[in-house]
Write a structure and sequence with these properties.
The protein is built from 22 helices and four strands. The protein is mainly α and about 575 residues long. It has three domains: about 180 residues, Alpha/alpha barrel (Glycosyltransferase), CATH 1.50.10.20; about 240 residues, Alpha/alpha barrel (Glycosyltransferase); about 120 residues, Glycosyltransferase (Alpha/alpha barrel). It has a two-stranded antiparallel sheet with strand order 1-2. β3 and β4 form a beta hairpin. α2 runs parallel beside α4. The radius of gyration is 24 Å and the shape is globular. It starts with a helix and ends with a helix.
Length: about 575
């Protein structure tokens, strides 16, 4: 049948990439935000980068939206953050060819912020992000350095001072001092706080203390930087750090030199940068789980070895995370996180586990158990840091961890099994508590810019429903009524064309349709969804920008359509 042929083409394509690279590397979308920040950093921190910067400026001009602004991807609507950053780069380093692009961007900014005046721009950015300063301060800092907030030192008055001196505290104290940024943003806290301190003046009684602790904060920043220079493998974060330090007289500092090397290596031939190097571990685990028993025998041992080699065997310097977790890529800038650890554990379960694998699984399970928040849910990186995004519990990460617990429960020592049972009960209670009144769940790491509030309840609900169904197949059928409410809601969100978007009425995508089909399995709507996928695959699949990166940056990944469709079409092809 045709569905089986489609599934076979997807399988063959993924296996070819695994044989070539040893994993699935994929390709993240180019980002106007990353491109603007990276180019600004190179131009600020190094000489003789005219060629790279000119290529980035050209790419930005060619990829502005018709309304004059920029979105996070070339398929995304314009937003304030990306437009401000792109405009700052063009203001400082653009050429005459960029003048028309700048005028159109100014008109867009004036319409969205109410005015092009510095006070209006700063207020719009600060209001958009609220109490979370993780991204608002970097945007405004680059706006000040790019001349969008007026002349110095007045421009800095629009930017709150980040307490970079707190980075000198022991890592264990961070959760108690109320940092205004999330756990992964310590490099930005230090660098952005330092440039504001040195160029903006003010600070009152805290100023002498900050001056005294600047050296300690810089040493902390140095200890957080991976060997390849890229903080979190992210061009925006790495660029923000480099341009801030370079702008306060530290262009020759080792952190800046390594950061610029990372940025040079990440620029694409067309002049752009993606938001991150790749998601190799995440994509590879999705492929392993999607292929299941169809994974060829000759690839199982190499993939198992590759995954085992990615497990962290010592405390991570960035988050002080203990050993046992996995990050999203095998590159040096990754840090262990809940989603990728659960994904690796489930993938390893499919790869003929041996004694070494079981030992790694025990370490991974313990890592997840120690990460869980008091509410029973799972945060992304660090336990108990606060209520800011990525530090609070979230349903999609929680169900992933619970599924991993159940998959390995029979292999665990008795004492660890008791801990797992308690965690399962508390995790299920958390999921029941955060289920929406209509039966849906809202995820953290995926969204849809056409859904009110930019959430993606189809993604979140499909992930939880599918996870609960997999747990039931493994003998842990808990809260069936909760799962049924999710199924009923998901069925109600199918579009008339048979596919799914982020919610009913939002254009259908391969990714969202495939997840819904896999979750609904044998419901009539699932059959219609498979037919929709078949029609979509008559042409080369086009990825949809449903991915959310740090600070709600949108991305699409070239491999997501195939990886998400794999499970949905595999079930049909095996019937």
């Amino acid at each position: 049948m045709q569905t089986s042929a489609t599934w076979s083409r997807i399988r063959d394509s993924l296996l070819a990439e695994i044989r070539e690279h040893g994993c699935v590397r994929g390709e993240l979308s180019s980002s106007a935000l990353s491109t603007a920040v990276a180019a600004f950093a190179l131009a600020t921190g190094a000489q003789d980068e005219d060629r790279r910067v000119a290529a980035a400026v050209r790419w930005l001009c060619e990829h502005a939206n018709p309304d004059g602004g920029w979105g996070d991807t070339v398929r995304s609507p314009s937003n304030l953050s990306t437009t401000l950053l792109a405009r700052a780069t063009l203001n400082r380093f653009g050429n005459s060819a960029a003048e028309q692009t700048c005028r159109r961007a100014d008109a867009w900014l004036a319409e969205v912020a109410g005015s092009r005046e510095p006070a209006a721009l700063a207020e719009a950015v600060l209001n958009h992000y609220g109490k979370d300063r993780t991204f608002s301060i970097p945007i405004l800092t680059m706006g000040a350095l790019g001349g969008l907030l007026g002349t110095e030192p007045e421009a800095w008055h629009y930017i709150p001072q980040l307490p970079f001196e707190l980075a000198a505290l022991p890592h264990a104290a961070y959760r108690f001092v109320g940092l205004p940024v999330v756990s992964y943003a310590l490099p930005a806290l230090i660098a952005m706080g330092l440039v504001r301190h040195r160029r903006g003046g003010g600070g009152g009684l805290a100023r002498p203390l900050r001056s005294c602790l600047a050296g300690l904060a810089l040493r902390k920043l140095t200890s957080l930087q991976p060997g390849n220079g890229g903080f979190l493998e992210a061009s925006p974060l790495t660029g923000f750090v480099a341009l801030s330090l370079a702008s306060c007289g530290l262009a020759e500092h080792a952190v800046v030199r390594r950061a610029l090397d990372f940025l040079r290596a990440g620029q694409r031939p067309d002049g752009s940068w993606p938001i991150d190097t790749d998601l190799a571990t995440w994509l590879t685990t999705l492929a392993i789980k999607g292929l299941g028993e169809e994974m060829p025998a000759e690839t199982r041992v190499p993939l198992r070895r590759w995954l085992l080699d990615q497990q962290y065997r010592e405390r991570h310097p960035f988050t002080a995370s203990p050993l046992g977790g996995w990050g999203w890529t095998n590159r040096p800038g990754a840090v262990p996180d809940a989603d990728d650890t659960a994904g690796a554990l489930l993938a390893l379960r499919h790869l003929d586990p041996d004694g070494e694998t079981r030992g790694a699984a025990e370490r991974g399970i313990v890592w997840l158990l120690n990460l869980a928040n008091r509410d029973g849910g799972m945060p992304t990186f660090c336990r108990g840091w606060g209520r800011l995004p990525f530090d609070a519990s979230t349903p999609d990460l929680t169900i992933h961890a619970l599924h991993a617990y159940v998959a390995w429960r029979g292999e665990l020592p008795s004492k660890l099994g008791v801990r797992v049972d308690r965690a399962l009960a508390r995790g299920l209670q958390y999921l029941a508590k955060v289920q929406q009144t209509d039966g849906s769940w809202l995820p953290l790491w995926f969204g849809n810019d056409q859904v009110p509030g930019h959430g993606n309840p189809v993604y979140g609900t499909a992930r939880v429903v599918l996870g609960l169904a997999e747990m039931a197949r493994l003998g842990h059928d808990a809260h069936p009524e909760m799962r049924q409410r999710g199924v009923d809601w998901l069925r109600s969100q199918a579009n008339e064309d048979g596919g799914w978007g982020g919610c009913r009425g939002v254009p259908s995508s391969i990714e969202e349709t495939a997840l819904a089909v896999a979750a609904l399995d044998d419901c009539p709507e699932a059959d219609a969804g498979r037919a929709w996928l078949e029609r979509a695959y008559r042409n080369p699949p086009e990825p949809t920008p449903i991915g959310l990166y740090f600070a709600s940056l949108w991305y699409f990944e070239a491999r997501y359509p195939d990886l998400f469709a794999l499970s949905a079409l595999r079930d049909a092809s095996s019937r």
